[in-house]
Structure to design on (160 residues):
């Protein structure tokens, strides 16, 4: 599959998901900013893929990242972040969303599995109630301690 073919809008993705479901494929969804890709992201996404057949990443748009992370973020523009994620062999599709949370996207995709990182343990997971309502599964995967985009940015600032 060509990398560019992995980046879809929601309309294209809905059609693809319909075809995949007809073939009995299990759809896994996760989301995030993925601003500076690091080993924590890689381990998390690789593990997320093991929860089903098709891994879809909901990627926060640049505007969405600014709402969450504040001024100066993202470091990497959304098109580049999408392309970087698409280059990972265990990522099947990337869809960019504008909202602060992925709830609207989750409702449209209706994943069989919703995955979040361990940093969400004990917090409200957006979409969890919806996914559980139709028998889907929600998994919280281990968090790689000491690895985050925020920590990378702090380290770079100290060095600069």
């Amino acid at each position: 599959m060509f990398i560019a073919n992995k980046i879809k809008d929601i309309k294209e993705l809905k059609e693809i998901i319909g075809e995949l479901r007809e073939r009995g494929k299990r759809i896994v969804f996760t989301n995030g900013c993925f601003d500076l890709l690091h080993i924590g992201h890689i381990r998390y996404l690789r593990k997320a893929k093991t929860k089903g057949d098709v891994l879809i990443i909901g990627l926060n748009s640049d505007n969405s990242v600014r709402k969450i992370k504040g001024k100066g973020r993202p470091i990497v523009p959304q098109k580049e972040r999408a392309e970087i994620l698409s280059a990972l062999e265990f990522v099947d599709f990337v869809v960019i969303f504008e909202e602060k949370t992925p709830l609207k996207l989750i409702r449209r995709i209706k994943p069989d599995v919703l995955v979040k990182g361990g940093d969400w343990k004990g917090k409200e997971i957006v979409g969890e109630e919806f996914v559980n309502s139709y028998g889907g599964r929600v998994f919280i995967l281990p968090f790689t301690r000491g690895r985050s985009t925020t920590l990378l940015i702090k380290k770079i600032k100290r060095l600069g």
